Amino acid sequence: MADELEARPGLTSVQALSSVPDAVRFTFLYHQEGYTSGVRADLGRLHAGGFELAKALKNSWSSDQYKGINTQWIEPETGQRFEVQFHTRASFEAKQLSHEAYERIRNPQTSELELDELEEFQREVCDKIPVPLGASEIEDPPRKEHDG
């Protein structure tokens, strides 16, 4: 939020907070067998509830570094952004286990050698996660353009 206020000095603190994509985050967990149908249904419910996708959903079920789906939404009345992650129990636990590695990978001061080790760790963790049938094919629900 501080970076946003510094970059755009005319913003109020409420506007700056609304622009942070994961200041508010929800995680939906599904059983392996019902993951794909559950995610599609909940994406539809969010859309039908008037929430707008802030950007295309990020489906990482084919990634070797992270398994799951991340979405960013906008509540239309307030403009508040929020994140919804869609996981199975296994993908959520893997995310929790590898979160420190993820933070180190994002740090520009992390050495190339450490980056290689951290990415290998994440690959090993993700390799053990079963991919739900059809999860890699989940796409965006209809999207409205937002000018914010």
List keywords for this structure.
single chain; 148 residues; alpha+beta; five-stranded mixed β-sheet; 41% helix; 16% strand; flat
Secondary structure blueprint with pairings:
Elements: H1 2-7, H2 13-19, E1 25-30, H3 35-48, E2 52-53, E3 58-59, E4 69-74, E5 81-88, H4 89-106, H5 112-127
Parallel strand pairs: 1-5
Antiparallel strand pairs: 2-4, 3-4, 4-5
Helix pairs in contact: 4-5
How would you characterize the overall build of this protein?
- The structure is a single chain.
- The protein has 148 residues and is of the alpha+beta class.
- The chain has one domain (21-137).
- 41% of the residues lie in helices and 16% in strands.
- It contains 5 helices and 5 strands.
- Strands 1, 2, 3, 4 and 5 form a 5-stranded mixed beta sheet that branches.
- A hairpin with a 6-residue loop joins strand 4 and strand 5.
- Helix 4 packs antiparallel against helix 5 (112-127).
- The longest helix is centred in the middle third of the chain and has 18 residues, at 89-106.
- The mean pLDDT is 88.
The global form is: flat
Largest sheet: 5 strands, mixed
Q: What fraction strand? A: 15-25%
How many structurally independent domains? 1
Indicate the radius of gyration in whole angstroms: 17 Å
Reading the helices and strands in chain order gives HHEHEEEEHH
Q: How would you name the oligomeric state of the polypeptide chains in this document?
A: single chain
Helix content: 40-55%
Low-confidence spans: pLDDT under 50, at least 5 residues? none
Helix count, DSSP H or I runs of 4 or more residues: 5
Strand element count: 5
Class by helix and strand content? alpha+beta
How far apart are the first and last residues' alpha carbons, in Å? 16 Å
Average pLDDT level? 88
